[in-house]
Amino acid sequence: MQSANMLLRKIVRSSVLPFAAQHGMKMDLFPCSRTLSLSFCLKQDKSREPSEKLDLDEWKKVMKSGLQEEVSEMVSEPKELSSLAAARETLEMWRLAGRAVPENISEEQLKTFMECPSKSAKKKYIKYLHLKELHKKNDKRKMDEKRERRLEARDQASKTDETKKSPVLCMWSSIMDKAYNWRAAQSMVFGQPLVFDMSYENEMSVREVTNTVRQIVMSESCNRRSVDPFHIHFCNLKDDSLYHREFTKQYGEAWGKLLITVTDQCYTEIFPKDKLIYLTADSPKVMKTFDHDKIYIVGSMVDKSIKTGVSLARAKRLGLETAALPLDKYLLWSTGAKNLTLDQMMHILLTLKDTADWKKALEFVPKRKYCGFVNKPVKELKKTLDLINTLKFRKGREEVQKQFAKSYPKKYKIK
């Protein structure tokens, strides 16, 4: 065994160690020949050329430069921190001076603030951040208010559900529904007809058609709850039209159970022409009284662009009588077009049918459109309105003052 070990050591010395020393391999890989490898490396170090020593000097320089970079990085970090602190102090000074400065600023925003090229640019950037923060606060406040309203509505709904569950109210609502349906059924036999003209689909957009149908649904519910309802006719209503689709969306299953007359025929084919009156705001003839023997037609149209003369032209083509509501006679009109919504028209016609009082009926006109009811002759009121408008807009003020002084010499004197 000893002879075999000695032979193995000789082989390692003669073959492996010189190869490892030439290629710079570590001597720790051979524990059996540790002493020999050390001595061999020392011999090789002594026999190295001076160029290898220069390489070692370069390595020292590289190590020293790395240490210097680390030190410079350590020095630059506190410099950045000091500049950020200075920027924060300037912003605090601006806040104390009364400028619009945001309450919370991140480090990235501070860095961008410091990178701004001029003072005006810094002010604009800080103003932008302040406005952004205000918008966020307003959005959060609105969200909180909506949440509170939702909770309040939920509480109220729970309370109303509790009251609705009471048997007395359920019985009362069912009785009233039966009474309303009975009135609507009677109106289909004995009631005065009221026609909604559904021939304006091509004159409107899809959104305007949906608004029209909503207003007609409100008109139908208002008519059903009245004391003496109309017999409503939907004329020129074709299947699979925009009107028809919107009605099926709004009513759902109740569309087939409505106590109204739906037809694709024109009203001139159902009723005699001498009894038909087309209600339009463009008519030159003013409606004086409500006639219970006539059949009034309302154009089912909502036009945001206010297309004048469309319904009047249709009535003239069919050879029908037209009429407009006497808004100028009873109301001191201020602003806006004299076109009313369909549910407002229904309220006015029902009130006229029940009471024949124009003042009560015209109370359903939106109050933003008129100043009040007419108590004096219309011409005098128009003169005073013209005077007020000219004084307000400062157009021909001296001429207006002279006219006012002539008409009212005792109350007004020109200085």
Low-confidence stretches: 19-54, 69-77, 411-415
Terminus-to-terminus distance = 143 Å
Listing every helix as H and every strand as E from the N terminus to the C terminus, the arrangement reads HHHHHHEHEHEHEEHEHEHHEHH
* CATH fold name of the domain at 169-369: Alpha/beta knot
Instruction: State which percent range the strand residues make up.
Output: 5-15%
Q: Structural class, please?
A: alpha/beta
**How many helical stretches?**
15
In CATH, the architecture of the domain at 169-369 is 3-Layer(aba) Sandwich
Shape: elongated
Task: Explain the overall architecture.
With 415 residues, the protein is α/β, with parallel strands linked by helices. Among the domains are: 98-156, no CATH class; 169-369, Alpha/beta knot (3-Layer(aba) Sandwich), CATH 3.40.1280.30. 60% of the residues lie in helices and 7% in strands. It contains 15 helices and eight strands. The protein has a six-stranded parallel sheet with strand order 3-2-1-5-4-6. α7 crosses α8 (242-251) and α7 (206-224) packs parallel to α12. It is elongated. The protein starts with a helix and ends in an 8-residue tail after the last helix. Mean pLDDT is 76; it is low at 19-54, 69-77 and 411-415.
